[in-house]
Amino acid sequence: MRINAAQDLKAARAALAGAYDLAPSAAAARETAAEYARVARVIPEPDWMLHAPYIRAIKALKKERGAVILGHNYMTPEIFHGVSDFRGDSLALAIEAARTEAPVIVQCGVHFMAETSKILSPEKTVLIPDSRAGCSLASSITAKDIEGMRAQYPGAKVVSYVNTTAEVKAASDICCTSANAAQVVEAMPGDTVIMTPDGYLARNVARQVSKRVVWWEGACMVHERFTPEELRAYREADPDTAIIAHPECPPAVIDEADFSGSTADMINWVRREKPRKVVMVTECSMSDNVASELPETEFVRPCNICPHMKRITLENVLWSLHTMTEEVVVPEHLIAPAARAVQAMIDLGAKPTRH
Ligand code: 13P
Ligand code: SF4
Predict the structure, then answer these.
(1) Cα 331 to averaged position of ligand 1 atoms, centre (Å)
(2) In the predicted structure, residue 226 carries a pLDDT above the cut 70
(3) Do the Cβ atoms of 214 and 153 come closer than 8 Å?
(4) C-alpha–C-alpha distance, residues 112 and 134, integer Å
(5) Atom 4 in ligand 1: residue holding the nearest Cα
(6) Ligand 2 atom at minimum distance from 110 CA
(7) pLDDT tens readout for residues 46-57
(8) Quick check: do 6-134+308-323 and 138-220 share a fold?
(9) Cβ burial, residue 344 (10 Å; 0-12/13-18/19+)
(10) Residues linked to residue 160 through DSSP beta bridges, in sequence order
(11) Considering only CA atoms, which residue is closest to atom 7 of ligand 1?
């Protein structure tokens, strides 16, 4: 039975209701008061009454199963602050997956992140609450395409973004994330470096490094939609507005920004600079996840949602732990070569940013 399949939803909900007390309740809200304190600015109390019973049940079940929950910065605040044991960008979550001693990892993020955890910890059970949580970048390229790029640029090293399948990682020389892409490219031998699959990230990195960078034309469906005109309009409306953008945005968008960095680097920039008003040019939930701790900052929300990230809900996190599904499986022959590419990146020593 799958909670994510429409035909099974009713039965799955009945099974959860039979096993846990999931009715909205003031008692559950009291028991989760510490979590609520972190999101009070963005989640109204009546909504928290609905979330609290799920959070209480997930916390108890997590202990029972020896599970750790890794929450990406794009998770909704009730998941990010309510149930995640570790929060961060792709790099930090990958490092945590390799480091944790917990036998079970629940990945609150998208499929490539769960695969990365499995690759780094093949002996662990890695669960993803909805295996359909994909990524427009990961689905834009195959291992065969990597071979095509190698044939086009003989001898050039292939740096693949972690937003790729295990098969593509295995075909690459090294991985990178948005937190360390320039550092990884600069560390490669040779004059030319192939970057896949994000064409915009590659263009942005090409402007920071001494190498010739060639790339695959994939794009993030969330970040490619931002435009420089949109950002200029925010600044014209209030010239004191700080603008910070994720490097998956087109270069013309990055040119309008005061800072560009990984999701964690963006959060830390706001913590450090404490702007009066800021536009975080990235997925919607990021602003919500930091708004509570920075009451003096006004967040303008140019809201582009990642439909893949939003497949993860408290309900399917609970279902995942209840049934120990959906388990992420990486074909045996891909694990070692994919781990080599991810580990090569981690060994370069870029500093991860956790929250
Ligand atoms: P980060 O590595 O910056 O967390 O980004 C992951 C991602 O999917 C951004 O769209
Ligand atoms: Fe992929 Fe973009 Fe969604 Fe990140 S925000 S998971 S890059 S589609």
Answers:
(1) 24
(2) yes
(3) yes
(4) 7
(5) 89
(6) 6
(7) 999 999 999 999
(8) yes
(9) middle
(10) 175, 196
(11) 90
Listed residue (225, 226, 257) closest to 244, CA to CA: 257
Class of domain 138-220: alpha beta
**pLDDT, tens digit, 9 for 90 and up, residues 269-303:** 999 999 999 999 999 999 999 987 898 999 998 77
245, two tokens = 């953008």
CB-facing half-sphere around the CA of 142: CA atoms within 13 A: 3
**Ligand lying closest to the C-alpha of residue 87:** 1
CA distance 353 to 355: 7
Tell me the whole-structure pTM to 2 decimals: 0.95
**How does DSSP classify residue 74?**
T
CA distances from 142 to 114, 166, 168, 172 (A): 18, 10, 6, 11
- Nearest atom of ligand 1 to the alpha carbon of 220: 10
Cis peptide upstream of residue 154 (ω within 30 degrees of 0) = no
User: What's the CATH architecture for 223-300?
Assistant: 3-Layer(aba) Sandwich (3.40)
pLDDT at residue 353 greater than cutoff 50: no
| Model confidence pLDDT, tens digit, residues 159-184 | 999 999 999 999 999 999 999 999 99
Which amino acid would we find at residue 160? Answer: S
CATH hierarchy code of domain 6-134+308-323: 3.40.50.10800
Residue 70's nearest CA partner among 86, 90, 89, 81 is 86
Q: Where are the domains of the chain?
A: 6-134+308-323, 138-220, 223-300
Q: How far is the CA of 286 from the centre of ligand 2 (A)?
A: 13
Reading the block at residue 158, the tokens are 């292939």
159, 193 Cβ separation under 8 angstroms: yes
Share in percent of the chain as helix, strand, coil (round to 5): 45, 15, 35
